[in-house]
Amino acid sequence: MSTTPLPEEVRRRATSEGAALYTAPNGRSYVVVCWQGAMRVFVNCCPHRQLPLDGGGRLYFTADGSLLCCANHGAKFHPLTGLCVAGPCAGKGLQRVPALEGSAMPLP
Ligand code: FES
User: Do residues 88 and 48 make contact, with C-beta atoms less than 8 angstroms apart?
Assistant: First the structure.
């Protein structure tokens, strides 16, 4: 697991767009979510088929912006807990990475 601080640019994108992808120096891909003033970092791996959540480098939310969606088969995840609340992997969750969150406070 990487303990490299999140780059400022990733924090800014997550803050302004709600979520951002981050590829760590070790090559692992993470999803950085900023929702209702809190920031979370998850491994970019859907528990349904262990595929990345993004579609072509883009992350998706439901139309009302309340849930993070997997681009593959539409699983919907709570943006702070990472729990899948609807879709093919309901009840499972994204793997949270608190070690990266320590440096991931939202920008004022
Ligand atoms: S891989 Fe995410 S819903 Fe199927």
Answer: yes
CA gap 37, 48 in Å, rounded: 28
Instruction: Look at residue 99 in the predicted model and tell me its pLDDT.
Output: 84
pTM for the predicted model, two decimal places: 0.91
pLDDT in tens, 72-100: 999 999 999 999 999 999 999 999 998 88
Q: In the chain, what is the straight-line distance between the N-terminal and C-terminal CA atoms, in Å? A: 28
Domain definitions of the chain by residue range: 8-101
CA of 69 to the centre of ligand 1 (A): 9
Query: Where does ligand 1 bind, in terms of residues with CB under 6 Å?
Result: 46, 48-49, 51, 70, 72-75, 87-88
Q: β-strand 68-69 against 29-35: which pairing, if any? A: unpaired
**Cα-to-centroid distance, 3 and ligand 1 (Å):** 27
Question: What is the CATH T-level fold of the domain 8-101, as seen in this structure?
Answer: Rieske Iron-sulfur Protein (2.102.10)
pLDDT digits (tens, 9 = 90+) for 3-43: 567 898 999 999 999 999 999 998 999 999 999 989 999 99
